[in-house]
Write a structure and sequence with these properties.
Distance between the termini: 19 Å
Strand order of the largest sheet: 11-10-9-18-13-14-15-17
Structural class: mainly beta
Number of strands: 18
Oligomer: single chain
Order of helices and strands: HHEEEEEEEEEEEEEEEEEHE
Number of domains: 2
Low-confidence stretches: 2-42
CATH class of the largest domain: Mainly Beta
């Protein structure tokens, strides 16, 4: 996100890894499995819906980083995130009515690695998870249908498998141009100066998480892995003149201070190493 070629290069890298014919990571060919059949619950919350057939599941739009899926839910601005999960298999994600399937969450992401998700709320047999897709484009947003930085959807809790316990979180202040790593009690463990978006291409606020990381030799990132968050730009559809869906990344850059980016967060070598040491799923809260 520091320049206009980083995430387009990601698309090509993902295409190579997924053996695709085009730069479209969301088109990877996961193994589809039917959703579980309804089960009774003694807890408050809607009953699980009938399972989808493999063809019905495959027909759903994939919740990839460059997808726009109107049926998704705007995620809360703040959330307590303590656990990272992977999915037992490809599954449908549901709208707020708990009946309408709106997206496919693949078990493996565009890198061919297990998809990491985090939960922000539970209700009966359901978990509200954050997704890497957009709910709405900024150019089409209205007061009634805004374009949030982070989307969410409901999935059956039984499909989640614990992948990591999260004991730290990342807090980024765009006003102070500072990144802090906090422990579970809110104590600051490390603090770094960072570069953030300009006035015309601002870094969005909201709570997301570290969803994936990768090296990009094409952009000189052979040592410091780019950290992809689940958050998206809210001021423009493609503020980086690419096709990355306005995804917000955290990455190394020699100029890592001031309002200098297209919306991503620029870090020094020391700072990116500290973020890279955190497990995927670590929450990232961006404040103004």
């Amino acid at each position: 996100m520091t320049n206009r070629r980083i995430l387009p290069a990601l698309l090509c890298t993902a295409a190579l890894l997924a053996s695709l014919s085009a730069c479209a990571p969301g088109d990877a060919k996961p193994t589809h499995s039917a959703s579980p059949r309804p089960t009774a619950t003694a807890e408050a919350g809607a009953a699980l819906p009938p399972g989808l057939s493999p063809s019905e599941l495959k027909a759903l739009p994939t919740a990839s980083f460059n997808a726009v899926i109107p049926g998704l839910i705007a995620a809360p601005e703040k959330a307590e995130i303590r656990t990272a999960f992977r999915l037992a298999f490809d599954t449908a994600a549901y709208a707020g009515d708990f009946r309408t399937p709106v997206a496919l969450i693949p078990a493996n992401n565009f890198l061919g690695e297990p998809t990491v998700v985090v939960r922000v709320k539970t209700r009966g047999d359901w978990s509200l998870i954050l997704t890497p897709a957009r709910k709405q484009l900024p150019s089409k947003a209205t007061a009634a249908d805004p374009a949030p930085a982070q989307s969410a959807a409901w999935v059956p809790t039984r499909l989640l498998r614990v992948s990591a316990t999260l004991t730290k979180r990342v807090v980024i202040s765009t006003e102070e141009q500072k990144l802090s790593i906090l422990d579970g009690a809110g104590r600051t463990l490390q603090e770094f100066a960072v570069g953030v978006g300009t006035d015309s291409t601002p870094t969005p606020t909201g709570t997301g998480y570290l969803q994936a990381r990768y090296l990009d030799p094409a952009q000189g990132q052979e040592e410091h892995r780019i950290q992809l968050t689940s958050l998206h730009a809210t001021a423009a559809d493609e503020p980086y003149d690419g096709s990355d869906g306005g995804l917000i990344g955290i990455h190394y850059q020699s100029t890592a201070a001031g309002a200098v980016s297209h919306g991503c967060v620029r870090l020094s070598a020391e700072a990116i190493a500290a973020v890279d040491a955190l497990p995927l799923g670590t929450p990232v809260q961006i404040t103004g």
